[in-house]
Each structure stands twice: as structure tokens, then as C-alpha cells.
Amino acid sequence: MRNLPGFWIPKDVSWEKFTKQGTQGTMFARGLKRKSAEDGEDVEGGLAGAQAMPSYSLQRQSLLDMSLVKLQLCHMLVEPNLCRSVLIANTVRQIQEEMAQDGTWRVVAPQAAGRAPLDRLVSTDILCRSVREQEGERPAPDAGDGHTPDLVPGLATVPSAQALRNPQSSLWEVDSSRENRGGFQKSLDQIFETLENKTSGSVEELFADVDSSYYDLDAVLTGMVGSTQSGHGSGLQAFSPATAAPPSSSCRSDLGELDHAVEILVET
Amino acid sequence: MIPGIGVLTQDTLWCFSQVKGTIEIGATEADIISTVEFNHTGELLATGDKGGRVVIFQREQESKNQVHRRGEYNVYSTFQSHEPEFDYLKSLEIEEKINKIRWLPQQNAAYFLLSTNDKTVKLWKVSERDKRPEGYNLKDEEGRLRDPATITTLRVPVLRPMDLMVEATPRRVFANAHTYHINSISVNSDYETYMSADDLRINLWNFEITNQSFNIVDIKPANMEELTEVITAAEFHPHHCNSFVYSSSKGTIRLCDMRASALCDRHSKFFEEPEDPSNRSFFSEIISSISDVKFSHSGRYIMTRDYLTVKVWDLNMENRPIETYQVHDYLRSKLCSLYENDCIFDKFECVWNGSDSVIMTGSYNNFFRMFDRNTKRDVTLEASRENSKPRAILKPRKVCVGGKRRKDEISVDSLDFSKKILHTAWHPSENIIAVAATNNLYIFQDKVN
């Protein structure tokens, strides 16, 4: 399972289930796209019932996407600007809260995922690609994989308002493995933990984390992203080159500070 | 009218005086000026750059022969203040960029300044040497040791004049006290202590002690996930050594009194303007983030700069500023683009003139703005090579917002957002200003009649 590139397998999901799910997931994703392509207009129109809403939602969604991309800078040699990160994160939270309030949160999400997949695909894909190249993984995600990143922001928007504030985020500890995925709130918390630790590798793993949530198909299917505690330990390993080729000097794998220091010592 | 301290009426004309820096467009990033500061007399002007260098200019003595030429600033000393470092534990580089320079008041023949990068503050001593000892017994003129057998007489070395040499030596290094990036340093009016502020904490130092500092403000939440606000700037009161202010990314200013408790997490005063609900957008918080806070020379007011405005606050009124000046309100409709290209996070500084009657701040397209608090007049000027003829009077610039563009106006869409004036300085007593435009330093003076 560790060797499956690009996919992590939830701990509590058996291989068969995953396979079926994986297929379903892909199909689901494709289905999403097809559906949205057909029903694009309807979806938009049905969003809030008023024609005035759609363009605002689009703007808001694209602002959300832009903010997420801004928070995920893979090639950082210097510590990120904390003030900027905090301001962007606050903006994202604001959008989340508004989307939760006017009920577009759940409704929009799955469709939103498929709505404008290509734009997101390009940005996240390019970012993904460069990260994965450095981590020695396959150079370019194939079409199948390509779809799933679409779901990121969509998935990210799936969690309910409760999920946003749920204490799941408090489970996010500095040195524990990145086991608790899912929940957009997570991403923000991870960002701050990352900034706290300030490991450049954690920027990749930060990004990897968000990637992983893309594959939280369980959540998509059941509509309960926030609550699923799918373990991602093994999945993360698939991303991190912990045992793979030695990471480049500027991209450290997912290690705590102590592990990190040990790794440096061992490598030298 | 006091000569030199003018009120910014239509009578005050600003002229080009000097420009320092390279002309070519491909100047290296290391040359980008990151801080500008006059010393307390205005005799010296210091700049710091991204490459960790400090360049100090000294004003030449005004000569009676050339009354029309006010003293020019020439290079006095250049030194490498900070070097790039690598944090091995975190695998991250520590930039050598000089974030701030602050001068200490002069107490003897030497000059002292504090310079800081993201992590380390250094105290530099800049002193002149214009004499050297000559006539050693054991060394010859080139410094080579003489064979003692050849020495037959003894003489007393004498000090002889030499070409002036200015040397800068690091006298103190204040390191390892900041986990986050230092954004401000401020010398206390007691001249014995100073503070350094990073995103989440403020430390108080004694100049003599480098291995410990007192933490006086700490806004780091126990849970980093709850972080929503950071410290953006801090400054000591110019006269009351117990008071200081710090600003936040949420547009608030807190005045703290160090006598109240050791840890000043509870403010004495809290300055915040209520939000205008009609102007609310997703960018409201970002543009309210304060990028600079400065006490007036009198100590009665504080000035804050956020993305679109400069505000003056009376220390005795916390619920709103007494004055608000629009720097470039035409950008309000462009906030989304400015968010996309990150310009919305640019940190502009602001300065008072010597008499606290005029305030100045920078903008884009190498424009900078001055606001006269008394006449309520404002002017937009440009720092560019085109206006660089000696004593050429700067022509006011205007940005046209829409509709018909007049001949000399520039439209919002033509503004060059890569040319930003973030750092400016005003001479403490005269109408001389220093404006940093990327890698060039412009010095302007008011017209001498």
C-alpha cells in the first residue's frame, strides 16, 4: 500500500474496499465532471435560487482557491511571512464562515469541485508535480490522478460548519504523524503548525496533507469529511520519501524537529 | 516663518537634490534598500539593504560661498552588518536583509546605531580615526619588526594626522531571542534600553547585556491553531520611558505601561476604529492591517499606516483617529488583483516632519505623498530619474481614476506596482527628505530662496 503512488489508503479501509472505492472514486470524480458539464447552468442557477448570487459565489470560490494556493508555497527556502499567512488564513476562514452561513457550503461543494476543475487542476497540478518530482515520485500525475486534485477545494468545502469548528483540529499535534486528515480547518491548522516548526519540508508535507484529503473519498461519498478519522499514516508515507531516495536539501520529509535533526546528522 | 520648517502650502516646493544608487535596471536584489533613517541631528543618513549592508551618508558642512547649495550627503561609511545564515535545525535560510536601523543619540565622538535582520540585532559603533601613531621603536614604518640589535635610541611615538578613516565595529550582538521575524526596534528615551519586536513577542534589552532580554509582550496563543493576529510594529514613547505602543494585523494599536506589570499583555489603552459596514469586503481585514506606527515628536499623537490610509490618533482618544488621509483610494476597486499579485501585503512606512505638521508616506509607481495637517493640503510627488536635474522642482503628480485623463495625469491601470516606495525618512529639523525607490536613494530638499 505504501507503494501506491499518489493514493493513500485509509487505515480502516481494506484493500478491496479501497479498490472498489478507488474505482468508484475515479468514476465519481468523472461523473462529477460530466454531470457538472451538463448541468452547469442548473447548478449555478439552483445555488441560491437567485440569479444575482452565482457570480458572487464564483468570485468567492475563486478567492478561496487563490488563498489556498497562496498558503501552499512549496519552494520556500526562507521562513514564510507569518503576518501574510495569518491574513490569508483569516480571509479563508471568513469565506468559509460565510459559505456555511448561507448554506452554500454543502450544496456547492461537490458541484464546485467539478465546476471549474481545469483551472484548479493546472495550479495545483503544477505545484503537485514540482513537489512530487523533488520527492522522487512519478513526474506527472496521470489523468486519473489529475481528477482527484480537483476535489481539493471542493472537498475542502464539504465539511459542515460543525466540522469547521470541531475539536478535531485540536487533535493536530506537532509531533504526531499527520494522521488526522480531512477537514479544511485542518489545513489552516497545519499551516500554523508548519510555521511553528518552520521546516521547509513541512511545507511539502503541508501540501501533501491537503493532497491527501483530496482522496478522502469516503468523506465525499458520505458527505461527512470532518468526522471521518481515516488514518493517513500509511498514506502520508506514500508521499513522504521517508525511506525512499534521500530528499533534496531543501525538501525535508515529514519529520518532527527532532527526527529532522537526527536525519541531518545521519545523512552527514 | 521659521526657515527650514515650513508649512506645506503652495509656497513649499520640493526640489531634487541627489540620488544614490545604480542606474541600470538589472541591479541586483541585494541592492534593494530596505530601511532609511536620519540620526537625531540629521547630520547622518543611514540605509540598510537586502544584502545586509549598511551605508551611512554624512552631510557636508555648508559652505558660505555656496548659499544656494545646501549641504549634500556623501558616503561616510559602508559596512556589512549582517550575513546570510542557515538555521540547520529547521533547514531554512535566515535572510541578511536589514529590516530596521535606529540611531542612538550621540553621547561622545562616536556614532552608534542598531541594525537588525529577522533574527539578530547588532549595535554598531562608527568612529573616525584621523591620527595615527608614528615613531615606534620596535616596528618600522611599514609595521615590520625591527631587529633589536639595530636599535640605538629610544623615542616616544607621536600622533600625526592621517587621512580620515571611518571604521564601523560591532560592539554588541543581541541574538537568539526571537523565534519569529523581527519587524521593529526602538530605542528607549532612557538611552539604556531598547526593544525588539517580532510577529508574536516583544523583548526589552539593556544595551550592555547581550545574553538576556526581558519578554514584555507575548501574544502567542497556547494553541498555534488559534493564531489570528500578529504584531506588526512597535515603538517607545519619545519621552516617557515606561510607555510604548504596538500595532497589529487587525488594525489595532495598544499602548502599554511597563510599570503596570512585568508582562505587558494587558494594554493601558486600546486604539481601534469601528469598522465601516458599507465598506466591508473579504479584504477588509487585510487592508486594515497596520504596517507602521510612529509617535509624533511631541509624544501626543501616533500615526499609523494601513494599506490605503494614514491615520493620526490622539493618545487621549481611543475610539477613533482624529485624522484620516487617503493615500491611494483608487486602489480600493483593485483589491482583488492586488491580493493576487501579493501587493496588498506591502508594508508601507510613514514619517512625521520635525514639527509634526506634515506627514509623508509612499505609494506605487515611485509616488510618495505628503499631507499637511494644518492646511489639509496634500501633494503627490515622484522619485524618478527624469526629475533628476539638480535643484529641479518636483512637479505634483496626479492619478486619474476614470473618465477623461488629462495630459499630465496617469491612469490607475498604468501604475507600475513593482516600483513601490516603502521607506522614507524626514530630517529631524529641516525640510530634507530621503526616499528609497528600490535600489536608489533620492534626497529632496525644499527650495531655498
Molecular structure report:
The complex is a heterodimer of chains A (268) and B (449). Chain A has helices at 15-48, 52-71, 82-101, 104-115, 117-134, 143-157, 161-165, 184-197, 200-214, 217-222, 233-239, 257-267. Chain A has 268 residues and is an all-alpha fold. Chain A has a domain at 55-104. In chain A, helix 1 packs across helix 6 (143-157). The longest helix of chain A is centred in the first third of the chain and has 34 residues, at 15-48. The model of chain A is unreliable at 1-53, 107-184 and 198-255 (pLDDT under 50). Chain B is an all-beta fold. Chain B has one domain: 7 Propeller (Methylamine Dehydrogenase, Chain H). In chain B, 2% of the residues lie in helices and 42% in strands. Mean pLDDT of chain B is 92; it is low at 1-9. Chain A: Residues 133-154, 227-252 are annotated as: Disordered.
Count every helix of chain B, treating DSSP H or I runs of 4 or more residues as helices.
2
Number of domains of chain B: 1
Could you name the CATH homologous superfamily of chain B? YVTN repeat-like/Quinoprotein amine dehydrogenase
**Mean of the pLDDT scores of chain B?**
92
The biggest beta sheet of chain A is recorded as: none
What's the gyration radius of chain A in Å?
Answer: 18 Å
Share in helix of chain B: under 10%
Low-confidence stretches of chain A: 1-53, 107-184, 198-255
Number of distinct beta strands of chain B: 32
Low-confidence stretches of chain B: 1-9
**Sequence of secondary-structure elements of chain A:** HHHHHHHHHHHH
Write the layout of secondary structure elements.
The complex is a heterodimer of chains A (about 270) and B (about 450).
Chain A: H1 15-48, H2 52-71, H3 82-101, H4 104-115, H5 117-134, H6 143-157, H7 161-165, H8 184-197, H9 200-214, H10 217-222, H11 233-239, H12 257-267
Chain B: E1 14-20, E2 33-38, E3 44-49, E4 53-59, E5 73-80, E6 85-87, E7 92-94, E8 100-103, E9 111-116, E10 121-134, E11 158-174, E12 182-187, E13 193-198, E14 201-206, E15 209-218, E16 231-236, E17 243-248, E18 253-257, E19 269-271, H1 284-288, E20 292-295, E21 301-305, E22 309-314, E23 323-326, H2 335-340, E24 350-352, E25 358-362, E26 367-372, E27 378-382, E28 399-400, E29 410-411, E30 423-426, E31 432-437, E32 440-446
Parallel strand pairs in B: 28-29
Antiparallel strand pairs in B: 1-32, 2-3, 3-4, 4-5, 6-7, 8-9, 9-10, 10-11, 12-13, 13-14, 14-15, 16-17, 17-18, 18-19, 20-21, 21-22, 22-23, 24-25, 25-26, 26-27, 30-31, 31-32
Pfam families (chain A): SERTA
Keywords (chain A): Cell cycle, Cell division
Protein name (chain A): Cell division cycle-associated protein 4 isoform X2
